[in-house]
């Protein structure tokens, strides 16, 4: 998809609105790795991660107007979709599989250009650092919710804490991370 | 009904998809109506997406599988609606510009505009009916567009998009031009009384030439015209149901035809 190499994500989505398959292929080339990687991390199952990835990209194809570039990056949009679909799948299966939270850097090997890979790794480092810097109770609550697909109600049950406490921990932790990442020049996944 | 304070408490939880059921529905309802919460949620989702920004190889086989399903929901009788998206260019930043050395930015920017130009402009091969005093004949030039033809035009290199904006800079309609055919693919024109019609005009050498009548509620309208003349602009007026030979009311929307 050489002709789209330098097009912005928003331009690619505009072209997807006109049913340009090469534009969708370019979006897949750029962001397919992270979308799949997150689904696999949540689901711990390659076949289900394939299904979620397929669903995320078909949703973009069928409803490109769901993406609004003024509200965040395309990567961020697709990752949120991937996470949401994965969590839905986990909950619908009602199967809490053992899921490991693997080292974020270990598998950063996308079929993507070197510049982006380096950036992804740098971001992953910053995220890891920001997460580690949180008070342990905030980090624990965020990890249980995000990586283990638990609702905050379930997180409260697991941690033996009132729901209000867990809500506050997640809120404070997320805000703290946002500030730390912003200081590092990271506004969201890109 | 969820209060603003309650919603604020839960936005981070929503950004992590860690909320279910009625509470989630109520929260999303509130966010949809509250700009402050929406903005806060967008920021928090940016954070949550960085948590999940861990790449693994996405295989060519998976792409093949995805591409085989692109038209599953479509068939001959149920072709997809046209999606004409228009993102504000000022807010669109090429991926590389945040992190690449500035020496590359010029090249990237040039490339981005080149791609945009190739996609949006192409070769104009639009012909227009020459000045014609017979409104009835022009009326026949317009018909209901075959959606398949519109889709085909949109993905064909060389098509030209024309946006018709009102004087208040509000988008009123989008038109696709290709090889002597035109399609009104997205229209926000209000329903007119039956005694009136929208009429489409091509501006040639500063003079409005009627292309045809669009009806009182134009959607998916197709027009076909032939002439060596090329309009610099398209414009729409509201006319009596039978149409007019020259515009009898002010132009309600117009757009430049990129050459």
Describe, in short, the structure shown.
The complex is a heterodimer of chains A (190) and B (259). By secondary structure, chain A is mainly α.
What does this molecule look like?
The complex is a heterodimer of chains A (190) and B (259). The longest helix of chain A is centred in the N-terminal third of the chain and has 23 residues, at 21-43. Chain A has eight helices and no strands. Chain A folds into two domains: 1-101, RNA polymerase sigma factor, region 2, helix turn helix motif (Rna Polymerase Sigma Factor, Chain: A), CATH 1.10.1740; 113-190, Arc Repressor Mutant, subunit A, CATH 1.10.10. In chain A, 67% of the residues lie in helices and 0% in strands. In chain A, helix 3 (46-62) packs across helix 4 (74-93). With 190 residues, chain A is an all-alpha fold. Chain B is an alpha+beta fold and 259 residues long. Among the domains of chain B are: 4-51, no CATH class; 135-256, Immunoglobulin-like (Sandwich), CATH 2.60.40. In chain B, the strands form two sheets. Chain B has a five-stranded antiparallel beta sheet. In chain B, helix 1 (4-15) packs across helix 2. Chain B is extended. The N and C termini of chain B lie far apart (53 Å). Chains A and B meet through helix 1, helix 2, helix 3, helix 4 and helix 5 of A and helix 1, helix 3, helix 4 and helix 5 of B.
């Amino acid at each position: 998809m050489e002709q789209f190499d330098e097009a912005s994500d928003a331009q690619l989505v505009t072209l997807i609105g006109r049913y340009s398959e090469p534009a969708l292929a370019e979006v897949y080339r750029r962001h397919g790795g992270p979308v799949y990687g997150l689904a696999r991390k949540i689901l711990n199952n390659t076949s289900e991660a394939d299904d979620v990835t397929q669903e995320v990209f078909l949703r973009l194809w069928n409803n490109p107007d769901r993406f609004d570039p003024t509200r965040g990056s395309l990567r961020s949009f697709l990752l949120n979709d991937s996470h949401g679909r994965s969590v839905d799948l986990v909950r619908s299966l009602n199967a809490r599989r053992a899921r490991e939270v693997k080292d974020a850097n270990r598998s950063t090997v996308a079929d993507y250009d070197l510049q982006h890979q380096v950036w992804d790794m740098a971001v992953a480092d910053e995220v890891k650092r920001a997460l580690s810097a949180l008070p342990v109770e905030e980090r624990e609550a965020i990890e249980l919710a995000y990586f283990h697909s638990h609702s905050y109600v379930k997180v409260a049950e697991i941690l033996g804490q009132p729901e209000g406490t867990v809500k506050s921990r997640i809120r404070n932790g997320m805000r703290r991370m946002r500030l730390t990442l912003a200081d590092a020049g990271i506004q969201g996944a890109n | 009904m969820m209060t603003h304070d309650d919603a604020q408490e839960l936005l981070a939880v929503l950004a992590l998809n860690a909320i279910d059921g009625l509470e989630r529905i109520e929260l999303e309802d509130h966010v949809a109506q509250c700009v402050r919460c929406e903005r806060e949620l967008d920021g928090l989702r940016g954070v949550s997406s960085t948590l999940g920004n861990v790449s693994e190889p996405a295989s060519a086989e998976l792409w093949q599988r995805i591409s085989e399903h692109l038209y599953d929901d479509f068939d001959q009788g149920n072709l997809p609606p046209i999606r004409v998206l228009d993102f504000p260019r000022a807010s669109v930043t090429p991926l590389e510009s945040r992190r690449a050395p500035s020496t590359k930015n010029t090249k990237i920017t040039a490339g981005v505009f080149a791609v945009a130009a190739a996609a949006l402009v192409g070769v104009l091969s639009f012909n227009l009916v020459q000045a014609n005093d017979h409104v009835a004949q022009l009326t026949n030039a317009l018909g209901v567009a075959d959606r398949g033809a519109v889709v085909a035009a949109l993905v064909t290199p060389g098509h030209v998009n024309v946006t018709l904006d009102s004087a208040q800079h509000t988008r009123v309609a989008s038109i696709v031009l290709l090889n002597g055919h035109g399609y009104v693919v997205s229209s926000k024109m209000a329903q007119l009384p039956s005694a009136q019609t929208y009429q489409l005009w091509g501006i040639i050498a500063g003079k409005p030439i009627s292309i045809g009548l669009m009806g009182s509620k134009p959607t998916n309208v197709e027009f076909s015209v032939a002439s060596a003349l090329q309009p610099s602009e398209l414009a729409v007026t509201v006319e009596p149901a039978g149409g007019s030979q020259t515009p009898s009311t002010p132009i309600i929307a117009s757009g430049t035809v990129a050459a």
